[in-house]
Amino acid sequence: MAMPGTGSNYEILTREDFSDVTYLLEVRHPRMARAAKPGQFVIVMSHAEGERIPLTIADFDRDKGTITLVIQAVGKTTREMQRDCLAGTHLHALVGPMGIPSHIGEAKKVLCVGGGLGVAPVFPQARGFKEAGAYVIGVVGFRNRDLVFWEDKFGAVCDELIVCTDDGSAGVKGNVTEGMRQAIEKHPDIDECIAIGPPVMMKFAAETTRPHGIKTMVSLNPVMVDGTGMCGGCRVKLDSGIKFACVDGPDFNGHEVDFDDLMSRLGRYREVEQKATARFEESCHMREEFVAASAQEASKD
Amino acid sequence: MALKKRTIRTIPQERTPVEELDPAERATNFLEVNCGYKLEEALRESERCLMCADEPCVRGCPVSIDIPSFIKKIGEKNFHGAYDVITNTNLLPAVCGRVCPQENQCEGVCTVADSLEPVAIGRLERFVGDMAIREGWSNIPYIEPSGFKVGIVGSGPAGMACAADMAKAGCDVTVYEAFHEAGGVLKYGIPDFRLPNSTVDAELAKLIELGIKFECNTLVGRLFTIEEMIQEMGFHAVFIGTGAGYPSFMGIPGESLNGVLSANELLTRCNLMHGRDPEHYDTPLPPSKNVAVIGAGNTAMDALRVSLRLGAGNVHCIYRRSHAEAPARAEEIHHAEEEGIQFHWLTNPVEILDDGKNNVRGMRCIRMELGEPDESGRRRPVVVPGSEFEFEADLVVYAIGTNANPILGQTSGLKLNKWGYIATDENLATSIAGVFAGGDIVTGAATVIEAMGAGRKAARGMKAWLGLRDTEESCLGEPAPFEDRLLGLDPAEHDFALVRLPRSAASSSNAS
Fold first, then answer.
1. DSSP letters of A237-295?
2. Which of B402, B417, B443 corresponds to the end of one domain?
3. Do you find a cis peptide bond into B93, omega within 30 degrees of 0?
4. How far is CA B301 from the centre of its chain?
5. Looking at the structure, do residues B220 and B195 belong to the same domain, yes or no?
6. pLDDT by residue (tens digit) across B85-102?
7. Dihedral-angle region of residue A111 (phi above 0 means left; psi in -120 to 50 means alpha; beta otherwise)
């Protein structure tokens, strides 16, 4: 019996690999492309037995009717998607845009900081501020030169762009806080900072701006199931109390967030996840062996 | 056929028991606990209805099912006829027969209950609903399209009930659901051992047969707004049945430890996402040996019994009032007790204890005693000084209710009440013309049948708003002959949109 909701209508139009762990999916969803605003996220299921995982919308194209996701293969689900989500395939579920859009306010001069998996999601915010007439300084951080992506896209919407790499193989040597320090030194009149990336990066980004009193918004990425406020799995601790990232966020004032709490809660299924990842790796390995063995068989004939 | 008048002395004195799985065995699986009446059992139990003139059960039912009439049809072995009677007012008998709190509704006011155990109305309803699923019955009336387009937000019990009534009134109905599967709390919340998801799917299939369209993966408010539905998408009326959904926590120390979660999260991971089957599904569940669930409502009972089935050795129920005040269905508490859940009545959590690595190690609680009644009429629990104690736990589950979900308030001009729920008038109309709301998003957390009742009430309001006359009663049987018609209309038909069973189905059910 065909039950509602089992159709997978979300076609992947483009797949691009930035490195051996980072990949981009451009998915067709015209209605979502129309509705999406900077700072929002989606929940994706790649197949019927899969997990629901939240991913920040990295870009949207209203004319093409697509949304873009940039994903880092870190656990079982994201590795499996790296293997299976190719152009022409379909996602099982895609819901969004979720969360309160980022407030693109009156700021005259903004610092948009993205590190690691946060580089892509900070892009629509940089573009939003640019369109609103702000002077945009971009700071994007990568481990090394080979992992750098979207330098041209950021270049097009930023008045200044600082690329940081951990090993100094491109741009400034050091992590994003080093680039931030340089930007703040040069521009003492920055009104607002947006920092997106791994929790530890956002924590240090918030600490970098705190002494200068620069309002700093961060985008939080806790564990979620539904993304509609129903499960409470994504609750985060702020100075003002407990909030749900999915419906009260995902953007919060970085100077109020308890990042240690966030990091601890992100690890709550780690043990189970590690086992799942190990099982997945093993099955991939077995599959490779099987394919290799079959190829050998075939070549004998 | 004249029945000899039944009296309280002539009916079977004992309520017919229903077969249940053995507690020790069932606590290790997710099979349905209550096996349902077999034919002879249903026939015997139907004889216990006095067919009293007063019919308090009908008034006790939130959707006013004509209970004596369907029980009479069971007694006559006219099971399809019984199904017709129930589905006149309730499209989901297999669901309601399982999850309604009958002891507070129809059975609670049953005349037989004055001196004996009440008639097992819920079990009889389920018997009919299950037979309908098995036999493939569905009462799909001939529906004259009314030309109206109706949008329903949320595919839980309130949305399903409203959708069914509007579809029967000839409207083109689309139901939007944020999850990837329809059914709402019936799917993600209520576990299979109480309401199998296959039963929910069978009932949903009947709605699809009625012409209702379901669109999943659609978060209304964010993908498009309520206002856009009315102004741009061509909906003439909209019903909001999104549920309460924003779980409450207590604000005691230790709540952000790993190992503290809401019952909604636990149940969704287990039920909708199939976390209980890690061999085939990817969604993880928190590993746990000693579980404490806070609360004693139906959701708490589900969380307790799910934890047991997931392999926890000790499962504790922590409730600050006593057994008598527990809001869960009597049968659920009874089943939980049978399965070995440890109940700690008059106990309130004070702190969740840390193992030093951000995990839960245990809980500190305090004993309570009952004082004066509060505004809800229940005796208010007060602290017994110096009675604090600790016990071991590695998972703490909150099932103490929910707050209003903020999404539609954030994204529309809907007027909310002071608690953040959607404000409505007595016909469940909201502050936006043509938009109605009902269920938990209006009242706060309640039961499945109350949500269905609200969905049907909103449908009545919606029909009045659209200018559709009442279509609640399906017309059975032959149309009136010409001389009995008024201006060409059959007085038995309540609407311009004719709701009439196809001749064949109507005659076969009359004949059987």
1. EETTEEEEHHHH-SEEETTTB-HHHHHHHHTTTHHHHHHHHHHHHHHHHHHHHHHHHHH
2. B402
3. no
4. 15
5. yes
6. 898 888 788 888 888 888
7. beta
Contact A195, A185 (CB under 8 A): no
Kind plus residue range of the DSSP H or E element containing B347? strand B347-354
**B265 and B385: one domain?**
yes
Residue ending a domain, choose from B368, B402, B436: B402
Between chains, do B224 and A31 touch, taking CB under 8 Å as contact? yes
Smallest CA–CA distance from A98 into chain B, residue: B222
Cα A293–chain centre separation: 38
Q: Can you read off the two tokens belonging to residue B471?
A: 């279509």
Within this chain, do residues B285 and B329 fall inside the same structural domain, yes or no?
A: yes
In sequence order, what are the residues at sequence separation of 6 or more whose Cβ sits closer than 8 angstroms to the Cβ of residue A290?
A: none
Name the residue among A51, A242, A265 with its Cβ closest to that of B283: A51
Q: From the list B180, B245, B259, which residue is nearest A229 (CB)?
A: B245
Q: Is residue B12 part of a domain?
A: no
Query: Do A193 and A217 meet the contact criterion of CB atoms below 8 Å apart?
Result: yes
Say whether A268 and B223 touch across the interface (CB within 8 A): no
Amino acid at B321: R
- Burial label for A97, CB within 10 Å (0-12, 13-18, 19+), is buried
Which amino acid is it at B30? F
Torsion of CA B343, B347, B353, B355, to 10 degrees: -20
In a domain, B143, yes or no: no
Locate tokens 């939007």: which residue?
A: B176
In which domain, by residue range, is B234 found? Answer: 149-245+404-466
Does B2 fall in a domain? no
Q: Are residues B236 and B373 in the same domain?
A: no
CB B222 to CB A77 under 8 A? no
**Residue B504: pLDDT over 70:** no
Q: Which pLDDT band, with edges at 50, 70 and 90, does A301 fall under?
A: low
Write the single-letter amino acid at A201: M
Give the C-alpha separation, B377 to B386, whole Å.
27
Cβ-based contacts of B280 with chain A (< 8 Å)? 49
Closest CA to A159 of A187, A135, A176: A135
Tally of domains within chain B: 4
Closest CA to A83 of A71, A101, A95: A71
The token pair that represents B480 in the structure block = 């009136």
Domain match, B286 and B387 both: yes
- The closest CB to that of B282, out of A40, A76, A94, belongs to A76
| Residue A3, pLDDT score | 47
Tokens of A269: 């299924």
pLDDT in tens, B10-28: 899 999 999 998 888 888 8
What ipTM was predicted for this assembly? 0.86
Rounded Cα distance, A297 and A300, in Å: 5
Looking at the structure, tell me whether residues B67 and B183 fall in a common domain: no
- Shortest CA gap B181–chain A (Å): 5
B86 and B182 housed in the same domain: no
DSSP B113: G
